[in-house]
Amino acid sequence: MEFRNYYGEPFRIDLNAVTNFPSCPCSEADEAVIQPRTISTQNPVIRSWKPEQLQLFATALFFTVLVDQVCYTHYRDFYPQFQKLTRYPKFHGDCPGGCWWNLHPNRIFRAAGSSPGSPSNWSGRVKIPENTIDVMRNEVLEFFNDYMQAIDGKEFWRRCVGEMPS
Question: What global pTM score does this model have?
């Protein structure tokens, strides 16, 4: 499946399956929360996926978390409206100790499909595929053009690119 076809309903279905993992905190204050262990091999849903599905999921999750964090960091006045429209998940550290800390979305690629545990043990090998960047750029520009014209989509995307792994 191509990323442009995955980022939408198939991603939401997979996200729902992953967050139904019993030890996933799943929500805090009515928002979805993903932790490294949620996307590790500790999760039977993740274990059941082929590498291609994990790649699509991790990439979609990365961009979703990235866009949410860029909005919160650089457009805080608009974040409540953005959050209400998107309901994007948060990426927090594992409990105990890291539950309340947002992790940089780049860590999704190391945590996805890895053994659970300390970040030093994360062995995920997922990388951001080149063909996904244009898809997400168009998604971001379209979103801000359609729903939040007060934010310049091109400037927003520039900030996203600055946070992407090299």
Answer: 0.91
